[in-house]
Amino acid sequence: MRFHLGTIFFRTAIISLALISSASAQTFKIATLSPDGSLWMKKMRAGAAEIKTLTDARVKIKFYPGGIMGDDKAVLRKIRVGQLHGGALAGGSLAKFYKDSQIYNLPLKFKNYKEVDFVRSKLDQKIMAGFEQKGFVTFGLAEGGFAYAMSKNAPITRVEQLKEFKVWVPSDDKASLVITQAYDISPIPLSIADVLPALQTGIINAVATSPIAAIALQWHTQVEYITNIPLMYFYAVLAINKKSFSKLSQPDQKIVRQVMEKIFDDLNQQNRKDNISAFAALQSQGIKLSNPTPQQLSLWNIKAEAASQNLVDKGELSADSLKQLESLLSTYRTQHAVAHQ
């Protein structure tokens, strides 16, 4: 009888564990604009395969690449209604949830990548924590790189020229609209998928984007000039709905975080190298580099300061975050100047 009761107890425990395991199993549906076969997709698929193995298939990830689920705005809408669990998104796309996440995107704040690295070492965790408080689990920030103005027909070196161009801004991007107002630009909002045909037909004739994005999206085939000013710094994240993520057991959450944090660290480093190479590749393909004079650059910076303050005044960015960014940059520049004396 003891053996019989013990066998029953053992079998009941096994069944209970199986039910628990089944209940906690999760397949995350993740959408992205990144095309299949790109570095991003290769890395994320590798991470998904590792997670599946380490969790004994309790956690799986199904990707929808190449924009088949729509742009970032559409993806966020589908996350809200439960059709998707997350997306690999431009950081600015999440600004509607956590406004200070766009602190890196302010115009002309960074002069070079060394300044970026210093500031990011202090603020990345704050941004990720902000996303999580607003309902999204992220796994690190992957560098998108510096965005440069790229134009057709004529170079852009003077701020006053901008009003003469038909300039693209991402649709539903309040921060970009505020920034363009400071530069007296009448922007043309479009989804990313619409930019290439708009360049081809002349609906727009100027964009701001990173070198690797210009090549990946084929925009470089429609531009003739690059203005040699790092206008803005961009990054991307893999954001998963926190409610969905919280359904995983704590050990499985830890595995997903560890694997994807490593993937995003790799992407962050590789994108830096690729952007530097892509910047040179654009010039080798005949796209001309335009350099503003010091006097012209001074006016670009004056307008940039006004744009940043406008974002604060309109409630699109907190004054504290702007102050923190400027304090960190001042600290770095002071230390850098001393180091080279």
Question: What would CATH call the homologous superfamily?
Answer: Bacterial extracellular solute-binding protein, family 7
The amount of helix comes to 40-55%
Summarize the biggest pleated sheet: 9 strands, mixed
Which CATH C-level class is it?
Alpha Beta
Integer tally of domains: 1
Low-confidence stretches: 1-23
What is the straight-line distance between the termini?
87 Å
Descriptive account of the structure:
With 341 residues, the protein is α/β, with parallel strands linked by helices. It has a single domain, classed as D-Maltodextrin-Binding Protein, domain 2, CATH 3.40.190.170. Helices cover 51% and strands 16% of the residues. It is built from eleven helices and eleven strands. The chain has helices spanning 2-24, 39-54, 72-80, 113-133, 174-182, 192-201, 211-216, 242-245, 250-284, 294-313, 319-339, and strands at residues 26-32, 59-64, 86-90, 136-137, 142-151, 168-170, 188-190, 206-209, 225-227, 232-241, 288-290. Strands 1, 2, 3, 4, 5, 8, 9, 10 and 11 form a nine-stranded mixed sheet that branches. It has a two-stranded parallel sheet with strand order 6-7. Helix 5 (174-182) links the parallel strand 6 (168-170) and strand 7 (188-190). Helix 2 runs antiparallel to helix 9, helix 4 (113-133) runs antiparallel to helix 11 (319-339) and helix 5 packs across helix 10 (294-313). The N and C termini lie far apart (87 Å).
